[in-house]
Amino acid sequence: MGLLAYALYDAISLDLMLCPGDRWKVYRLYRAGYRAGNVVYFMEETWPKDWRAAKNEPLTFEILLEHIADSRSLHPGGAGDAHELMRRLNIVRERLANGLSVTEDDLLPDPKICANLQ
User: Fold this and answer.
1) Which residue in 67, 69, 68, 48 sits closest to 57, CA to CA?
2) Which of these, 39, 81, 79, lies nearest to 59 by C-alpha position?
3) For the chain, what percent of residues have pLDDT higher than 90?
């Protein structure tokens, strides 16, 4: 998570030394499967094309959170990530359609994929 925190420091000036209460932002992205490379790709490929960047508006955590999934699915070789995102969306849709609440575990990466990486 250290590299992710550093990437967020570079992207949105998230300084955990000044604001240790912002650790939840790093944790939220990490638990959703994002890593430093996803933030870097977003900053290099997606953010410069955003209208807010063209108007020199600063990137915020909320904007990053809203658009990083799009960036990850467009990343070269990101088809696996796009499939993973679709899997998570289908879980959420199914749970909501059945009147169930969405849990944090529903948003975690597929355990089969994680087992293959170890």
Assistant:
1) 48
2) 39
3) 22
Against a cut of 0.85, is the pTM above it?
no
DSSP letters spanning 55-99? TTPPP-HHHHHHHHHHHHHHSTTTHHHHHHHHHHHHHHHHHHHTT
Decide which of 84 and 22 is more confident. Answer: 22
Domain that holds residue 53: 1-76
Same domain, yes or no, for 65 and 85? no
Residue 77, pLDDT score:
53
* Number of domains the chain is built from: 2
Same domain, 54 and 90: no
